[in-house]
Design brief:
Largest sheet: 6 strands, antiparallel, barrel
Structural class: alpha+beta
Strand order of the largest sheet: 2-3-4-7-6-5
Shape: globular
CATH class: Mainly Beta
Number of domains: 1
Distance between the termini: 27 Å
Number of helices: 2
Helix content: 10-25%
Low-confidence stretches: 17-22
CATH topology: Thrombin, subunit H
């Protein structure tokens, strides 16, 4: 079974095959959010520890205190389990009151290789399933 088949099989087991987690049916692929502490997934980018915001077959987004510029190619280590190459396509700034007004950069990335999104999403969703069982 290839990564694409695993992806659809996993969505079916989770009861998510037809539903976008944000209710946005205009997206080509559902986006799965990791914005809660019990769903925390760490992303290591160069020397920076970041947190995964969401993932879809098309790409992912993560939060960081460092701003990686649009157009930059990155290698992301996801929760110490696997690496994926991605290209920064969008950056937004959030200010966190609980962090003393510190700026947090939300980076939207597109996977560098076609088909990489299925593998990455399957691995991250499997991680989420393990967290839910614990």
């Amino acid at each position: 079974m290839d990564a694409k088949e695993l992806y659809y099989s996993l969505l079916k087991r989770l009861g998510l095959e037809a539903e976008d987690t944000r209710g946005n049916r205009l997206r080509q692929h559902p986006r799965f959010s990791f914005d809660t502490p019990e769903r925390m997934v760490l992303v290591q980018v160069e020397d920076f520890s970041c947190s995964l915001k969401d993932v879809s077959v098309g790409g992912l987004s993560f939060r960081s205190t460092y701003n990686f510029n649009i157009g930059r190619d990155l290698e992301l280590n996801i929760d110490g389990k696997f690496s994926v190459k991605a290209h920064v396509v969008r950056v937004a700034v959030e200010e966190r009151e609980e962090a003393g007004g510190e700026k947090i950069y939300v980076h939207g990335c597109k996977f560098a290789r076609e088909g990489e999104g299925y593998r990455c999403t399957v691995l991250v969703l499997n991680h989420l399933v393990r967290l839910m069982r614990a």
